Write the structure tokens for this entry.
Amino acid sequence: MDTILHKENIRVLLIDDHALFADSLSVALRSHDPGFLVTARHDLRGASNFLMSHLVDLIILDLELADESGLGLLGQLKVICGKNLPSVLLCSAHHRPASIAKAFIQGIDGFVSKSQSVEEFYQAARQVLTGKRYCYPAIARQVSKLERSLLMPETKYQFSPRYVEILVLLSEGRTNHEIADELSINLNTLKSYLKDIYSILGVGSRMACVRKAVSEGIIDFV
């Protein structure tokens, strides 16, 4: 993979339904490196049609396209591209660690936030092109923990990704207000979730909840 960055041109397919963002990022990446040849498409159908007739080295994929998830493309890549699979760098204005963790499990190579600078976008692109993983630093640790938890063997306790996300945040010592803000939910909703989690695990406190979740293999405390 290191040899990709020594090619004269890097073929990039940018899939984003916001034309202004797509055009601006295309120009910015080219200004950083004239060898970045960026083609933009604004929906998955247009992107799929392009991939059927063009080889690309990197796909920069918006997580939330109009009326569809960008992740819908991942399952089609092996069929469309065969052995010439491009690296995939997911991007979004929203930072939902559980969604990003599931996206890594589904096969993305990196995640970059739309709040990051063009230089950070460029460095993230270079990193995944060399076969390395990249994740927006502000959520990287939480995403890694969620990935490990979601990949753990099933236990007798069946938790949704949302409940696993809450358990991970509890294990980090977050307060209810911090967890609610992180998950963009109100405190009453969080308290209802916590009540369900405590009931399922048969515990009555936060500390006991975390200990039980770790001992049962639901989350990884590391």
